Amino acid sequence: MLNYEIKSCLFESDFAILKSLLIKEGLSFDTYVTESFLLYDQNLPIATFSLYHHVIKMIAIKDSYQGQNITTYIMNYLTSYLTEKGIFKYFLFTKPSQKYIFDALDFKLILETQEVLFYENKYQSIEDTLNDLKRQIDLSLNDVGSIVMNCNPITNGHLYLIEKASKNHETLLIFLVEENESVFSFDVRYQLIKETTKHLSNVRILPSTKYIISKATFPSYFMKDINTHTHAYMQLDIQVFIAYFMKTFNISKRYVGEEPLDPMTHLYNETMHQLLGKKLEIIPRLSNNHQVISASYIRKLAKNKAFDEIKLLVPKPTYDYLISKEGQALWT
Fold first, then answer.
1. Mind listing the pLDDT tens digit for each residue in 259-287?
2. Hey, what's the torsion of the CAs at 179, 181, 186, 189, to 10 degrees?
């Protein structure tokens, strides 16, 4: 063990070694990476592993070094490394053949597919997180519909979808995307949707958590980049929703708006339809003068200070925010 050394991948030659190790272990390089590492035995590269923020992935160990507790060595390093950075909650992707290894370590399996295993460390598990949210709901959970939304920002189109869905259930839960990867922060988006829906007594807004449409489950969403891994991430994200969110909150139906413009969201809707079947309802999008009302269009108008047009397309809380000093500062 004393001869082992971990080095960050900094140069093209490092990544060439990394990719070679991955290929030999039947893995492919995932572009959603913030840091990558190589493990050396003296001058011989024997393993690689990577991080995407708080997600551990692409662990590959040279065949001749397997069975020598290299995975444990790597995980001990990463646990210390993440803790030093103030990251106490983290996730891990690995291939199914490695299940026996990670089941024996301090990880909990969230979901298993034919292609991948999705783990989390045992600090504040998915069950703990969702049950904490459940305790905050002051409405009946006998008849529950749901929407997962980003609302960047909330438009009349979003409100139309919410009002339509809310009429079909005793309770409508809106899981607002919690990752701060949008133009409008989570806190702003939460406040705007809460003010916009205050007339709907059976609607409650909850954070989506790190378990759906997040850097862990669906990083492609934030990059709007469709690649070879995108569909697998979509399936994972939706399967987590089915296995945990629908079960915990007794959700009978999920609603989405029809998506004629954005290829990523359109593909996500199609994947949901395949996995949810009749438990998914797609609502036709609201339009104005044949223009689909989308958040991206509102952002474009706001950047150009077209506030008269915006006023026709968004709820009053969104309009008031966009014309405010804080709202206009987003575009300067």
1. 877 788 889 999 999 999 999 999 998 87
2. -130
Candidates 3.40.630.30, 2.60.40.1120, 3.40.50.300, 3.90.1330.10; correct CATH number of 4-123?
A: 3.40.630.30
Considering the chain, tell me which residue range(s) the CATH 3.40.50.620 domain(s) occupy: 127-331
Residue 47 near residue 9 (C-beta atoms within 8 A) = no
Please tell me the distance from the alpha carbon of residue 276 to that of residue 252, in angstroms, as a whole number.
10
- pLDDT given at position 130: 97
Residue 2 has a pLDDT of: 57
DSSP 138-170: -S--SSEEEEEE--TT--HHHHHHHHHHHTTSS
Question: Cis omega (within 30 of 0) on the bond before 317?
Answer: no
**Strands 287-288 and 117-121: what pairing?**
unpaired
pLDDT > 90? residue 185: yes
Q: What strand order describes the sheet that includes 117-121?
A: 4-8, 35-41, 44-52, 55-61, 91-94, 117-121, 107-112
Give the integer Cα–Cα distance in Å for 176 and 206.
6
CA distance 217 to 234: 8
Other C-beta atoms closer than 10 Å to the C-beta of 78 total 19
Tokens 């998915």 locate to: 126
Label residues 211-232 b or e (16+ Cβ within 10 Å = b): bbbbbbbbbbbbeeeeeebbeb
Residue of 251, 261, 252 lying closest to 294 (CA atoms): 261
CATH fold of 127-331: Rossmann fold (3.40.50)
Residues of the chain with CATH 3.40.630.30: 4-123
**Nearest-angstrom CA–CA distance, 53 and 202:** 36
Helix (H), strand (E) counts: the chain = 14, 14
Q: What is the DSSP letter of 330?
A: G
Verdict on whether the full-model pTM lies above 0.90 = yes
- Please give the single-letter amino acid code of residue 141: L
